[in-house]
Write a structure and sequence with these properties.
172 residues, 2 domains, two-stranded antiparallel sheet, mainly alpha, flat, 2 strands, single chain
Length: 172
Amino acid sequence: MLEDKVFNINISEFQNTEKLVDEFTETIISVANITIGKTISKTPKPKVPWWNQDKDKNNALKKFQKTNNQENFIQLKYLRAKSKYLIKSSKKLSWEKFTSSINDKTDTKLVWNKIQSLKGLRRHRKINLIDTNLNQLVNNFDQISNNLGEYFYYNCSDNNFKPHFLVNKKKL
């Protein structure tokens, strides 16, 4: 696929090498996006139940770092103190809400999970894989490892190489 697109680039259209290199780079990136694809990695937020997002403090820090101004420093200190207060009060409120929800019929697993989340400990995440042949989600670790093994075996096999490359490979 990449070879076809590279051979379709008309070199005579480009007056300087920079534009030709830019076109070549864009071709490689577009083919990579098609063949490899992109994944979006999102960390689950909030990590703890008492978290609330405070962007003002971060913006004030950036502003102070750029200007190094006394007024911006005072604003930063104010927002940091406000943020500490909000976190402390949010933790307290979350703890009170949690303890009031516990009774003698509460499942102990739920209680310990909640305690771990209050501590901010990460939960174990499952590895999920989509089997493209069956178009379904695979959760079994043995099946996931087999699918990954087959995928890498296929990608590294000689079937993916051009014949002229295989000749040179066998010489080595």
